[in-house]
Amino acid sequence: MLTLDELTQRTGVSARNVRFYASRGLVPAPVRRGRSGFYGPDHVARLELVRELQGHGFTLSAIEKYVDAIPASATPSDIARHLSLLAPITGDRDVDVPGGLSGMGISPEAAQAVAEVYAEHGRQVAEELSEIVRTMVWPQFREAGYTAEQLREFIHRLKPLTIAGLVTAYEQAIDESQATYDSRRAR
Fold first, then answer.
1. DSSP structural state of residue 37
2. CA dist., res. 164 & res. 182, Å (int)
3. Is there a domain that residue 91 lies in?
4. Whether the predicted model's global pTM rises above the 0.85 cut
5. Is residue 158 scored above 80 in pLDDT?
6. Together in a domain, 79 and 141
7. Beta bridge partner(s), residue 2
8. Are 104 and 168 found together in one domain?
9. Which domain holds residue 133?
10. Spatial distance between the Cα atoms of 45 and 36, rounded to a whole number of angstroms
11. How many CB atoms lie within 10 A of CB 84?
């Protein structure tokens, strides 16, 4: 457990902001022991998440919506998963790919083709992962005595990891593609 001073040193968030964030429900209130308040790993993780969201340009209102979607029972490692996803995430669930590409000077036809590639491969990944869950994960869960509700919770927790894995795989593939293209051009 950390004192408020130790928490501010560790996270770089001022005491005033820690109190403000707690009053807005972005971080839990401190654990009280007598007249003193103490902070644990959950406070650290949530403060780091708030700072990262601010660094990505999220408004206070958007941060509140984002944090509200995280269950109060989330562990620091659950919150760390959210942090790991922030690099590729814009905060917008409904991204207008054709509109964004058209705004960059790409023809509407090419922009729509890109959107269709994303949609098709997204469906394919979802179908293949669903098959793995159905044939490999669910039997293992059932054998261990888990309920269908526990499987649903697992799948809910799997989604952020899946997104991060897809983004990482895409980034690696595009870097490899660019390197191949560059080496061909250099010949």
1. E
2. 27
3. no
4. no
5. no
6. no
7. 39
8. yes
9. 97-186
10. 21
11. 17
Which amino acid is present at 134?
R
Q: Which residue, 86, 107, 137, sits at the end of a domain?
A: 86
Question: Do 132 and 81 belong to one domain?
Answer: no
How open is the CA angle 130-131-134, to the nearest 5 degrees?
Answer: 85
128 and 175 both lie in a single domain: yes
Contacts of residues 17-24 at CB distance under 8 Å and 24 or more positions apart, as own/partner, are 18/43, 18/47, 21/46, 21/47, 21/50, 24/60, 24/64
Q: How far, in Å, CA of 32 to CA of 44, rounded?
A: 16
Q: Is 92 within the bounds of a domain?
A: no
User: 41 and 76 in contact (C-beta within 8 Å)?
Assistant: yes
Q: Considering its fold, how many domains does the chain have in total?
A: 2
64-121 pLDDT tens trace = 988 888 888 888 877 877 776 664 444 445 667 787 777 777 899 998 999 899 889 9
